[in-house]
Design brief:
- The structure is a single chain.
- The chain has about 425 residues and is α+β, with helices and mostly antiparallel strands.
- It folds into two domains: about 30-85 and about 125-325, BirA Bifunctional Protein, domain 2 (2-Layer Sandwich), CATH 3.30.930; about 340-434, 3-Layer(aba) Sandwich (Rossmann fold).
- It has helices at about 1-5, 35-40, 55-75, 90-95, 130-135, 185-205, 260-265, 290-295, 315-325, 355-370, 380-390, 400-405, 425-434; strands at about 10-15, 45-50, 50-55, 80, 85, 105-110, 120-125, 150-160, 175-185, 215-220, 225-235, 240-245, 250, 270-285, 295-300, 305, 310-315, 345-350, 375, 395-400, 410-415, 420-425.
- It has a six-stranded mixed β-sheet with strand order 1-19-18-20-21-22, with helices on both faces. It has a five-stranded mixed β-barrel with strand order 10-11-14-12-13. A three-stranded antiparallel β-sheet has the order 5-7-6.
- Helix 2 crosses helix 9, helix 3 runs antiparallel to helix 6 and helix 3 packs across helix 9 (about 315-325).
């Protein structure tokens, strides 16, 4: 059912029917590697600065990343919902965050008054959802027996970013997975907070970034001394972090000082400096929003106390862009198996009837076995097909040609390593299904 909702029921596609085309050069002025490769490969289309549309192949990857995140959030007790993008200012005024001086990333608009366009009540396009979800939870939380609760969503956010030069990693319209925890007390909050941190590390491992990603101490702002970021080492990153490899943790430069090092039991000589991309964050919120919006519950003593909250964010598009930045090579993108648009790129070379017949038979067998396959059945030169295959970055390329037909085996090339194996159809199917 979930795969149906997110467009993943189709396990196969003929490349001749794919409406998108690859291109040799990235658009002029596109400076980020992730956007250059994604646009060249036909995964995304740039509408304007900081705004990208997802095309069929890109949407498949995005939905697979969303699927991974959803599985890990459900595993720790998350309940999925979907809140509105249009926001009532009154809810936000209670926390003080409707003001542009406090939150300068708002996109705001007005309702039609009936007489003059844009002269009615003011509205906002959501950039986060602490306030509206806290207000909503007043209808569902009143007793200690109602807690804890963990609610999350995948929802389109709008932020009027000053900088929009990092491709899909920093955009003005994007999907965010935001989870919010509602706990009785600090102890209960901290227990879930650690489970969420573990779940995040599982997400990044499944997306192929596990060895590159570190739980990172960062400023907690007005909520707490520290929050946690998840930073992926990459030269294109906007942040500077200091890594302790032995403990698999890091410190953001913004809190890097002698006092913090002492508190964490770290020494400067054991740390290395790296540039990194923030791929996720988790924040203690305390009772700031629950107190402002009146979200309280009666404890066992009958006292009204505010709910203790936390916020947990991952941007699926930002994670997708980071995978491209970190794992791509000089030929193109290199997708990890779990988030790749397809598992197999079946490439037919030439128009010989026997080759076409064999390629069709392999395609049919893969489809029947529910193996996700993109079949390059286009009439093009071998060099063009291989260049496109490398650019698109599907994990395994299976080549059918007159040469492989004579050998009785397909040429199977792993995109990440370049390793080549020659396998018969039965050997290929056994390899894929075991």
């Amino acid at each position: 059912m979930l795969r149906t909702l997110f467009g993943l029921t189709m396990t196969h596609m003929r490349q001749s029917q794919l409406f998108t085309k690859t291109r040799r050069e990235a658009p002029q002025g596109e400076v980020s590697k992730n956007a250059q490769l994604l646009i060249r490969a036909g995964f995304v289309h740039k509408e304007m600065a900081g705004v990208y549309s997802y095309l069929p192949l890109g949407l498949r990857v995005l939905n697979k990343i969303i699927g991974v995140i959803r599985e890990e959030m459900n595993a720790i007790g998350g309940q999925e919902l979907l809140l509105t993008t249009l926001q009532d200012p009154e809810v936000w005024k209670k926390s003080g965050r409707w003001s542009d001086e406090v939150n300068d990333t708002w996109f705001k608009t007005h309702l039609h008054s009936g007489e003059q366009f844009h002269s009615g009540s003011e509205l906002g396009l959501a950039n986060t959802h602490e306030e509206p979800l806290t207000a909503l939870m007043r209808n569902h939380i009143s007793s200690y027996k109602d807690l804890p609760k963990y609610a999350y969503q995948f929802q389109t956010k709008f932020r009027n970013e000053l900088r929009a030069k990092s491709g899909i990693m920093r955009s003005r319209e994007f999907i965010m997975k935001d989870l919010y925890s509602f706990s009785r007390d600090e102890e209960g909050f901290r227990e879930f907070y650690e489970r969420a941190a573990e779940a995040y590390l599982k997400v990044f491992k499944r997306a192929g970034l596990g060895e590159h990603t570190y739980r990172t101490f960062a400023s907690g702002g007005s909520f707490s001394k520290f929050s946690d970021e998840f930073q992926t080492v990459c030269g294109a990153g906007e942040d500077t972090i200091y890594i302790n490899e032995g403990r698999r943790l890091a410190i953001n430069k913004e809190v890097y000082n002698d006092q913090t090092l002492s508190e964490l039991g770290l020494r400067k000589e054991d740390l290395r400096e790296e540039r990194a991309i923030e791929v996720g964050n988790i924040f203690p919120l305390g009772t700031k929003y629950s107190a402002a919006l009146g979200l309280t519950y009666k404890n066992e003593a009958g006292e009204e106390v505010p709910v203790v909250m936390g916020s947990y964010g991952i941007g699926p598009g930002r994670l997708l862009g980071t995978v491209v930045e970190v794992l791509s090579d000089e030929k193109g993108m290199v997708w990890p198996e779990e988030v790749a648009p397809f598992s197999i790129h079946l490439v037919q070379l030439g128009e010989d009837e026997d080759v076409k017949k064999e390629a069709e038979e392999i395609y049919r067998s893969l489809v029947e076995a529910r193996v996700e396959v993109l079949f390059d059945d286009r009439t093009m030169r071998a060099g063009e097909k291989f260049a496109d295959s490398d650019l698109i970055g599907i994990p395994l390329r299976v080549v059918v040609s007159q040469k492989t037909l004579a050998e009785g085996k397909c040429e199977c090339v792993e995109r990440a390593s370049g390793t080549t194996h020659h396998r018969s159809l039965s050997e290929l199917m056994s390899h894929l299904t075991t």
